TrEMBL record:
It comes from Paenibacillus herberti. This is Exosporium protein C.
Length: 147
């Protein structure tokens, strides 16, 4: 029977703004947009599975002549170089100006129980285009279960 180990939510920017945001994503530089620490005991038995969901708001400016691209990455750990759980690229048409929302779902299967008792997941957004605004929202949610 499946047993719930822990569930957590990280909210970075809670409300989106329809106006041009004061902050932006740096070009080709991973920006931390969500991080959770799931409490999973080091002696947890069974197959540990983690379901992850995230949301990121972006703002496309009218001056962008090329199709804007945003990369969303989730890692197990707290650094962009930690083990990759999921990555996706979202491309918008140049005519799609204004605020947009990106949703991502990921899963991590057969995870080792962490010695520290905390299983950390971090979500990064990397703009592959110039002038991508950061209007919010930004959140990451995770649920860990075992057999």
């Amino acid at each position: 029977m499946t047993q719930l180990l822990d569930a957590r939510t990280s909210t970075n920017i809670t409300l989106a703004t329809p106006l041009f945001p004061v902050d932006s994503f740096l070009f080709q530089n991973p920006t931390l947009v969500g991080q959770i620490g799931l409490n999973v005991a080091a002696d947890t038995e069974g197959v540990i599975r983690v379901k992850l969901e995230g949301q990121i708001g972006v703002f496309i400016v009218a001056e962008n002549a090329f199709s804007p691209v945003m990369q969303i990455t989730i890692v197990r750990g707290d650094q962009p170089t930690d083990p990759l759980v999921s990555t996706t690229f979202v491309q918008f048409l140049p005519a799609e100006v204004g605020p947009k929302s990106i949703a991502i779902e990921a899963a991590d299967f057969n995870v080792q129980a962490p010695e520290s008792g905390v299983l950390v997941y971090t979500m990064y957004a990397t703009s592959q285009s110039e002038d991508m605004g950061r209007p919010g929202p930004e959140c990451l949610t995770g649920v860990a279960v075992t057999d």
